[in-house]
Amino acid sequence: MNKFEENTLSSQTIFQGRVIDLIVEEVQLPDGKTSNREIVKHPGAVAIIPITAEGKIILVEQFRKALERSIIEIPAGKLEKGEQPEHTAIRELEEETGYNCKSLTHLISFYTSPGFADEIIHLYIAEGLTKKQDKLDLDEDEFVEVMEVSLEEAVQLVKEQKIYDAKTAYAIQYLQMKRVVEQR
Amino acid sequence: MNKFEENTLSSQTIFQGRVIDLIVEEVQLPDGKTSNREIVKHPGAVAIIPITAEGKIILVEQFRKALERSIIEIPAGKLEKGEQPEHTAIRELEEETGYNCKSLTHLISFYTSPGFADEIIHLYIAEGLTKKQDKLDLDEDEFVEVMEVSLEEAVQLVKEQKIYDAKTAYAIQYLQMKRVVEQR
């Protein structure tokens, strides 16, 4: 598993933040030379594809400061310390959309930016949705607008670059493939 | 486009690195309160799905220090300053695999981690491959092993978590969908 392993010679913590930490490590390369690796530490996250009884997808629009624009994403949120991803998924779905789900199925997990970050996203499908509350239970610095769209509308949002992130693009492509397989 | 926009009150550059910069911004939230945003600046990247005449996919295995393990990915690389993504794609394909391509088609672009980073990946399909050189032209600190796999083998690598990143998972799912559509 560890082909071309790089051994850490020294490690310097540059920043410890609310969401991420930044570490710079001096490493020994497979050929014996040295190099530096800039590494962002992230607690990991979940993302949820919530499908309503009518077959619509629940999405959230929010402003992303890193991009200086708002984009439309599937609901997602960071793992809290020691929290099981399934619990995070149920919690974030309820907080961001007001829905509970009867069924939660793990679809895939993937690293988002292996070149510089250890962020992993665990992706789930949530079905059997029931509205628990109209008022959202968002974090203090979180502002989202919830929308329900058809698969066709979601595909259009990808084309218009309103859906513009990897996890949501993966989710929409998954639903497209599922539709094609079911229609065979 | 800028629903729930957050205005920057102050910006502090914490780190300027070889690959990423880290900035912390104090922002004014839509409700007038303030918060901090931790933002990783990245030059952006391309990733390429190289398909051989035999229908195999060319993948590269490399050690990812952020994950402390090696994973198998589609070829990818950072944009150099002022470089057009298409040029980066052609350059990186040749450097990492030794192949030139006759046809390069843009598939999708997406942000990888909009919660904390501005990294965007432009994803291309490369076809009409010809081997230009056997020796790879890698960066000084880059060590990769090239492999050619069938779609079935790639799907198995996803299941085994040897393929474990968003761009490669998206690419394999895209090829699976293409196969299903073609077989209808």
TrEMBL record, chains A, B:
It comes from the Bacteria. Keywords: Hydrolase. One of its GO terms (molecular function) is hydrolase activity. Residues 40-171 form the Nudix hydrolase domain. The keyword Nucleotide-binding does not apply. Its cofactor is Mg(2+). InterPro entries: NDP_pyrophosphatase (IPR004385), Nudix_hydrolase (IPR020476), NUDIX_hydrolase-like_dom_sf (IPR015797), NUDIX_hydrolase_CS (IPR020084), NUDIX_hydrolase_dom (IPR000086). Belongs to the Nudix hydrolase family. Homodimer. NCBIfam families: nudix-type nucleoside diphosphatase, YffH/AdpP family (TIGR00052). This is NUDIX hydrolase.
